[in-house]
Design goal:
This protein is of the alpha/beta class and 172 residues long. The protein is built from five helices and nine strands. The strands form three sheets. It has a five-stranded parallel sheet with strand order 4-3-7-8-9, sandwiched between helices. Strands 1-2 form a two-stranded antiparallel sheet. It is globular, with a radius of gyration of 16 Å.
Length: 172
Amino acid sequence: MKEIKEYIRDIPDFPKEGIVFKDISPLLNHSDTFNRVIEMWKERYANHGIDTVVGVEARGFVFAAAVAYAIGAGCVMIRKPRKLPYKTFSKTYDLEYGTDTLEVHQDAIDPGNKVLVIDDVLATGGTMEAVLELLMDNFKCELVEVTFLMELSFLGGRDKMKNLPVYSLVSY
């Protein structure tokens, strides 16, 4: 989708040398394109009976809240440790340079809820793999799909999605 890619800029050597960061700030600031992105997700998910849209820290929150509103669903945040005020479930996972942990409120998702998970980018898939394990290990919900604004397909992250459907608006 050329119109989306026009508003994603490359930032070389961020956050460290050798990485080309995909900055979505221009997209979020361009109302027509941002609205089109949300409309595309709305068109895709409006008739799936989704109860809960899960957004992953931090840029996933922006998209999850907007899509949840657009399709009439609730919104849940998966956050870094000690950011949520209530009792949480947590998942620690490996990164290429250490470990990280994600948390979700213990009462975030009702049994039987149909859940859509949204994040901004699918890269190596490690964070999303942890998100999916966190959800599947702690909630009796139905994971409908995992969706991303963009996918860095050359990194193979899709392979870690636990046989769930994966949808990306744009791919690099």
